User: Which sequence fits this backbone?
C-alpha cells in the first residue's frame, strides 16, 4: 500500500524540527553535504554555513564521504529535491547548531570558572591570538578576552604585533555587567619589579662598593646599572678634578667602580660616587711634588698679596707678591694676569693644610748691581804735601802799621 504524503507527515516516526539525528555523509557538493539518515522521510542536507562554527575554505577540510555526523533538524521543506515521486521534499540539518549549543555550555562553565579565578586573584596562562584596535585578543578557556595596549607591558609599545602568538601570564579583570574578560600583564610585571627592587634596596647600604656599567649619560651626571637598578653618579662625584662635561670622561657601557653614598628606599633613588674611591688631588700632589721641584702652572686668580697658580688639577699654590720678581712689585696685575702660563719653583709644601708656596723669582737671574766710586767735591790731596799751618801774625805780617 502506498503511503500518502499526508499520512507520512502525520506519522510519529517522521523527523521534526529540533530532532537530533546521526547520519553518514553520502555526497559533497560545493555548497552542501548530503547525509543518509535512517528513517528520514526526505533527503537530508547540511548547507555549507551550517556545517561547523569554525572557519574553513573547502568542505572537504571538515567532512568526507563516509563520515558519521551528528546534526539537528532545523527545517523541513516539501517539493524540493524529490527522493521519489511519492515523497518529494528535503530535511535541513545543522551540525553547527549542536556545536554552538555545546560551546554555550562550555562557555557557561568557563565563565563560571573565570569568575571564580578572578575572585580568588588567580593568574592564568593565555596565548595572544590577534591584534585589534587599541589592544590585543586572547583565548581564555574558549572565551575571548581583551588586552588593552597599555596592559601588555610596563613600557608604551606602539607596535603590538610582536606579542601575537606568544603565551604570557595574566591577571584577570572581569566586567560582569558586560560579560567582558580583560587581561593584564603589566600589573604582574610591576609587582615582580617591585619585589626585586625591595630585595635590591634591602641588600644595598651606604658605604657599599659596587662595580657597574654606565647605562645613560645626562648633563648632570651618569646613570650606572648596579644590578636590578640604576644609581645616579652626579657630575660632582665623578672625579676630584673639575669635570666640565660628563661625556668627556664617561661613555655608555663603561665599567666603573662606585661607592654608595645615599639610599632613598621610599623614592627608589641611589646616589653613587666614584671620586670617593680615588685619591684626592692633594694626595696625588703629595706623592708627586717635593720642595725644590720646578713646575709649569696657570694663574687662576690674583690678589693684592700675590697670585694663585694651579700646578695640578685642583691643586693651587701661592706665589707671594715678594716672590714674583727681583724688582719691587706694587701691583700684582701689572706683572701677572689670570690665565697666564708660568714656571714656578716649590718653596714649601704643607700637605696637612693643603698649602703650597711657590716662587717665580727663584727661577729668574738675579740682576747684578754696579759699584759706584764716590769722588770728593774738590781735590784736597795737595794739602797732604804742604805745610798748611799758619799763625795770625803770618796772615797779617805785610800790613804796615
Assistant:
Amino acid at each position: 500500500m502506498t503511503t500518502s504524503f499526508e499520512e507520512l507527515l502525520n506519522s510519529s516516526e517522521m523527523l521534526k524540527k529540533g530532532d537530533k539525528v546521526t547520519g553518514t555523509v553520502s555526497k559533497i557538493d560545493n555548497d552542501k553535504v548530503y547525509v543518509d539518515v535512517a528513517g528520514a522521510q526526505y533527503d537530508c542536507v547540511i548547507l555549507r554555513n551550517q556545517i561547523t562554527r569554525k572557519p574553513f575554505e573547502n568542505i572537504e577540510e571538515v567532512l568526507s564521504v563516509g563520515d558519521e555526523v551528528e546534526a539537528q533538524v532545523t527545517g523541513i521543506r516539501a517539493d524540493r529535491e524529490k527522493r521519489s515521486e511519492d515523497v518529494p521534499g528535503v530535511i535541513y540539518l545543522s551540525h553547527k547548531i549542536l556545536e554552538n549549543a555545546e560551546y554555550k555550555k562550555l562557555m557557561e562553565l568557563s565563565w563560571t570558572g573565570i569568575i571564580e579565578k578572578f575572585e580568588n586573584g588567580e593568574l592564568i596562562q593565555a596565548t595572544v591570538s590577534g591584534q585589534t584596535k587599541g589592544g590585543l585578543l586572547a583565548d581564555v578557556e574558549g572565551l575571548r578576552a581583551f588586552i588593552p595596549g597599555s596592559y601588555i607591558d610596563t613600557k608604551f609599545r606602539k607596535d603590538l604585533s610582536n606579542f601575537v602568538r606568544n603565551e604570557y601570564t595574566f591577571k584577570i579583570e572581569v566586567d560582569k555587567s558586560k560579560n567582558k574578560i580583560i587581561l593584564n600583564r603589566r600589573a604582574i610585571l610591576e609587582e615582580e619589579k617591585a619585589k626585586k627592587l625591595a630585595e635590591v634596596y634591602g641588600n644595598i647600604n651606604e658605604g657599599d662598593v659596587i662595580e657597574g656599567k654606565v647605562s645613560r649619560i645626562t648633563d648632570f651626571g651618569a646613570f650606572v646599572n648596579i644590578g636590578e637598578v640604576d644609581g645616579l653618579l652626579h657630575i660632582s662625584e665623578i672625579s676630584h678634578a673639575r669635570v666640565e662635561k660628563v661625556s668627556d670622561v664617561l661613555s655608555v657601557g663603561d665599567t666603573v667602580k662606585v661607592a654608595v653614598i645615599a639610599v632613598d628606599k621610599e623614592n627608589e633613588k641611589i646616589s653613587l660616587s666614584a671620586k670617593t674611591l680615588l685619591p684626592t688631588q692633594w694626595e696625588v700632589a703629595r706623592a708627586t711634588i717635593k720642595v725644590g721641584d720646578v713646575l709649569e702652572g696657570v694663574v687662576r686668580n690674583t690678589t693684592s698679596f700675590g697670585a694663585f697658580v694651579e700646578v695640578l688639577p685642583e691643586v693651587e699654590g701661592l706665589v707671594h707678591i715678594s716672590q714674583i720678581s727681583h724688582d719691587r712689585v706694587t701691583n700684582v696685575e701689572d706683572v701677572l694676569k689670570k690665565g697666564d702660563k708660568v714656571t714656578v719653583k716649590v718653596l714649601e709644601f704643607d700637605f696637612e693644610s693643603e698649602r703650597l708656596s711657590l716662587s717665580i723669582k727663584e727661577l729668574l737671574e738675579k740682576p747684578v748691581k754696579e759699584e759706584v766710586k764716590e769722588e770728593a767735591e774738590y781735590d784736597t790731596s795737595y794739602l797732604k804735601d804742604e805745610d798748611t799751618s799758619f799763625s795770625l801774625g803770618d796772615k797779617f805780617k805785610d800790613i804796615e802799621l
Remarks:
- DSSP finds five helices and 20 strands in the chain.
- Confidence is low (pLDDT under 50) at residues 1-12, 388-397.
